[in-house]
Write a structure and sequence with these properties.
heterodimer, A: about 140 residues, alpha/beta, five-stranded mixed sheet, 4 helices, about 20% strand, B: about 475 residues, mainly alpha, about 0% strand
């Protein structure tokens, strides 16, 4: 085989092999996502849907979560909450009149809520609550 | 309805491009380029008009429909009524291309489309940056009604509210006309840009270097993991890479057709849309002007500098005005540029930051495109076996691409070193996407410079033939002397 043919063949083979490798990868990922509970945007969309529909067009909400502070997961969930509730503005603080809660169970930590002066306004299910900050 | 909106935007772009480059409506390379350019240009125009209407008269759907409708009708009328001119862009002459090159491109294209579809089904809202920045901004514009300006609130500084609005604009426009939200809008726009990149690369190289170079480059581009994955993830880096490639490709064509300055007008328009896509697009614009001026002065005809720059400015002025209007009137200060000079100075004098960034600048190019094998090495071998042969007329264009890429990499280097945050994390999380922005243009430059395999083989064979002939003649000359 001449050198130029080898060069072209190598380039095209590597391109096609990379493409087909990724194809297998994404099909596997798709199958996995269909079969398992996947953390991500659609999950947040459905959890926050009821709250989103009940809100006025312009609102500013505080945010509270049962995630440990300052890790990637809690940051991602805060951003996802903002994405799901847009055009409401969600602030990473409980110092707002209304505070949206993103909990991972339906039995939130009462002591933590009391310490933050939060009183339940409405439970939207799936760990989504609206609280009122009594000091604001 | 969403797909119809995008199709009409595409049609608007095609109308405008066809007005500049008319040709008969047949299945030709010329029309493939028109279609590829029309996708991004149409989206750019529709998105700019959406933003201007929103900014000047508010969220009035009738007014928006009128503005977009008038633009569409005008572009179509121009496209249909355009007089046919001299330059019809065709495949560059070359030896016949074996069928398996077309087949390889077909396989790469089919695989890329399937990958895009499955990735989209897995992540319909795209990856992190897509939903946290672009699609969220679109939601603010669409859902916010009279309060659409909340999209640029300082409270959302983590989502970079100063970023320009090409993508959020087109998505929100589709939702507005459809009166409903759907991930179809962002997905379809991402699809157009992802495969538009391939269309522009293949058709530009086909015109400049012939079918074989175009097919090899197209297969290589579509076989790369990062372009298709990032496209399906709805990252804005793919639309930006589209506009960078389009601008540089049009300037390559400009150098081939120096009397036809419409290429520069269109290049100005697409460069402006690059700035309307991402902040890096503004870098690109500055780098482009500097690189082009230098490349023409060094390698080209200096007399063409002023006319080309005038046409470039003519194309650039409208999208740039939209960007400036957005930045001055709506966008909050950029979070990176709003730092104190002493903070920047402290970072600049921190040698460890330099070392970290240099290390990543050495390592990351080996991951470019995310092929199974570092493609930079494979291209090195390809170059070694086939060599470059740059024609004089292509030198300004190739120099423009190389200098633009160098300047953009240098500017990003300075940002990584000087601005806050952990440079290692910043480079690791974003440098691959910066390389993706430049990758299609890099391929354009590489395959413009590289020898065409068949022609190279023929010239090698001819050289061997000549050498053999010389040898025979020498032997004949030596024999009588020996007698």
């Amino acid at each position: 085989m001449s050198s130029h043919r080898f060069a072209v063949l190598a380039l095209i083979s590597i391109s096609l092999a990379s493409s087909l490798w990724l194809l297998l990868d994404v099909i596997t990922a798709y199958t996995y996502s269909r079969e398992s509970y996947a953390f991500g945007v659609p999950n947040f969309e459905s959890r926050f849907d009821a709250l989103h529909k009940s809100m006025p067009p312009r609102s500013v909400l505080g945010y509270v979560s049962d995630n440990p502070g300052n890790n990637a997961q809690s940051q991602a969930e805060f951003y996802l909450t903002q994405y799901a509730l847009a055009p409401a503005i969600v602030k990473a603080t409980t110092e707002e009149h209304f505070v949206v809660a993103n909990f991972h169970n339906n039995a939130p930590n009462a002591n933590m809520l009391r310490a933050k002066n939060l009183v339940l306004v409405q439970d939207f299910g799936n760990g989504v609550f609206i609280y009122h900050n009594t000091t604001r | 309805m969403i797909l119809l909106c995008l199709a009409l935007s595409w049609l608007m772009g095609c109308g405008l491009v066809r007005w500049l480059f008319p040709a008969s409506l047949r299945s030709t390379l010329h029309n493939a380029l028109v279609l590829s350019l029309g996708a991004g240009i149409g989206i750019g125009i529709a998105s700019s008009l959406y933003f201007l209407t929103l900014a000047l008269v508010g969220p009035r759907i009738l007014m928006l429909a009128s503005v977009e409708g008038v633009a569409l009708v005008a572009a179509l009328a121009l496209g249909i009524l355009a007089a046919r001119r001299v330059n019809v862009l065709e495949w560059a002459p070359g030896p016949p291309t074996p069928w398996y090159f077309t087949a390889a491109l077909g396989v790469a294209l089919a695989s890329a489309v399937i990958i895009f579809i499955f990735s989209t089904l897995t992540k319909p809202h795209g990856e992190w940056d897509a939903w946290a920045i672009w699609n969220m901004r679109a939601r603010f514009l669409f859902r916010g009604g009279e309060f659409w300006r909340d999209a640029f609130s300082n409270q959302l500084d983590w989502s970079h509210p100063d970023y320009p609005l090409l993508l959020p604009g087109i998505v929100a426009m589709c939702w507005t006309f459809a009166r409903a939200e759907s991930t179809l809008a962002s997905t379809a726009a991402a699809f157009l840009f992802t495969f538009g990149v391939a269309g522009v690369l293949i058709s530009t190289l086909g015109i400049l270097r012939g079918k074989m170079q175009a097919l090899i480059a197209g297969t290589l581009l579509l076989g790369g993991v990062s372009l298709i994955a990032s496209g399906a993830n709805q990252y804005a880096d793919v639309p930006l890479s589209y506009f960078i490639l389009t601008t540089l490709g049009l300037l390559c064509l400009q150098d081939r057709y120096p009397d036809d300055l419409r290429f520069s007008v269109l290049a100005g328009l697409t460069a402006g849309f690059a700035a309307w896509t991402k902040n890096e697009g503004t870098f690109f614009l500055v780098a482009l002007i500097a690189a082009r001026a230098w490349a023409i002065s060094r390698y080209g005809n200096r007399a063409t500098l002023a006319p080309q720059f005038l046409r470039l400015a003519a194309g650039l002025v409208a999208p740039l005005a939209v960007v400036v209007f957005f930045k001055l009137r709506f966008a909050p200060p950029n979070d990176l540029l709003a730092r104190q000079p002493h903070q920047i100075l402290t970072h600049l004098t921190d040698i460890s930051r330099w070392i970290t960034v240099i290390q990543e600048y050495i390592v990351q190019p080996f991951r470019i495109g995310e092929y199974l094998v570092p493609i930079i090495l494979v291209l090195g071998v390809y170059w070694y076996l086939l060599r470059f042969n740059v024609e004089q007329r292509d030198r300004p264009a190739i120099a423009t691409i190389v200098i633009v890429s160098g300047l953009m990499l240098a500017a990003e280097f300075a940002i990584y070193v000087a601005l806050p945050g952990d440079p290692s994390w910043q480079v690791k999380s974003s440098f691959d996407r910066l390389l993706l922005q430049l990758w299609p243009s890099g391929l354009l430059a590489f395959f413009m410079a590289a020898n065409t395999p068949q022609l190279y083989a023929k010239s090698k064979a001819a050289e061997k033939g000549k050498a053999a002939e010389k040898g025979k003649t020498a032997k004949r000359a030596v024999k009588p002397a020996a007698k």
